[in-house]
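Subject: Protein entry, chain in single-letter code together with its fold tokens

Category: Structural biology, sequence-to-fold work with a learned token vocabulary.

Notation: Tokens come from a learned vocabulary of local backbone shapes, not from coordinates.

Start of record: The labelled sequence and token lines come straight after this line.
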Amino acid sequence: MRVAEDPDTAANLGRQHRFLAYEPGLDGLRGIAIAGVLCFHAFAASGIDLVRGGYLGVSLFFTLSGFLITSLLLRERASTGGNDLRRFWARRIRRLAPASLVVVVVVIALSGPWSVLHARTSDAVAAAWSVTNWHIIAAGQDAILQTVVGPLGPTWSLAVEEQFYVGLVVLVVLAMATRTPRRVLAVVCAIGWVVPMLLTNLVTDWHPTLEFATVMRAPELFAGVALALWTTSDRPPRWSAGRGDVAAGVGLVVLIGMMLLVDYDPPWQLRGGYGLIALVSAATILGTVARGRVGTALGNRPLVALGLVSYSLYLVHWPVILILDEQRTGLHRWSLALVRIAVAVVAAIVLHVVVERPIRRMRTPWWPTFAAWLAACAGVTVAAVALL
């Protein structure tokens, strides 16, 4: 059974990562996830009631990330006897920060001097330092929409993932110091999945914490962590291609069906629904890496290509949608939505090719990477204060 690291994938090393082999079907799943998010936003902003549950693509991203990052950490430890955390964080920074900061800088320029967009100083600073989710919560219910629908609003989910990476690395290091590290991690996964599910049902009124707090979205990530523990254990699941096809096929039907039909109101997902969806995502991932017909289909070139640019596309799609409004384009409904989607994809490809991929492939030592990241975040903060 072969898996791949997240988009730091094997593309870095001639389709082969040091510890994890590349599985194109997982990039295909990324393609489905980003297609759901992109279509949800583009159609809704254009006045079309279609792909109503496309935001669930974010949940699939969470579970994939939990699975891939944990698989990498566990297999690295199994291969080398430890984890090079400085190298791990340098890779994460090169993978995530450059494209994100470039988009924040462009949004600042388009919001300040040119007034094409309308980002606030606090939104840009929060996005630069990966704390948008907590910025939304701190803003309170009265001001929440100003950030969520602002050009940098979608960065809240990226903040959740990056904060989870910090906690996950700490958990792995602490667990490995015990006599039964996998058992400890399994218990942590169970607690991390169950407790937030219970907490969400103890709150009677809606609060931003239910949707944006890292701990409340942890079940989606921990489902992926648990799957990684299972697939890298001494007794991994030995599924035939046929059984994998059943799991992946049923999971895809459920996930895509929900993206097309599920409505956010009432927000049942916030009452434990996201945790249950994560189980469907985990089953789909497991079926995909069984390398049956469904996994092979998910590894087709167009879907994999979309998955490879999914990070850049997630970053640019919402600013593009806001810029290309009816007044500027003279388009309406379907034509407007399709133009928004096409331009977002082109912008994402440019960002991926020019910024994301070249920097991700660099092999700079950890300390210049950290220093450059801190300097870049500080520079973006100064620019946001000065220009917005």
In short: Residues 1-19 have pLDDT under 50 and may be disordered. Residues 333-360 form the longest helix (28 residues). Residues 10-387 form one domain.
